[in-house]
Amino acid sequence: MILILNGCTSAGKSSIARALQDAFDEPYLTTGIDDALRMIPAGLHNDPDGVSFVKEEGDGGVRLALGSFGRAVLNAHHRAIAAMARAGVNLILDEVILDADLRKD
User: What domains are defined for the chain?
Assistant: First the structure.
């Protein structure tokens, strides 16, 4: 079973995931976008090939931009999650689905 908690940063998804872990009778692992991004080497943070924060025009907001390596890491993380689920591991995902391609993946 895969349970996906999708939402903006600092919305409480991680706290909800931990509470669900405690509430369920069966064991569930938690993972998500933060785990994937933590694996990216520091040299590829704030780098166009890795991950960076980009200031939006107009409203001044900030968004996470993925370069080719950053996107490959997130896609690989999704494959790892699928493999764990196929192996019978229950999962709670703490996600921020950034765009339509990642939603499809």
Answer: 2-104 (3.40.50.300)
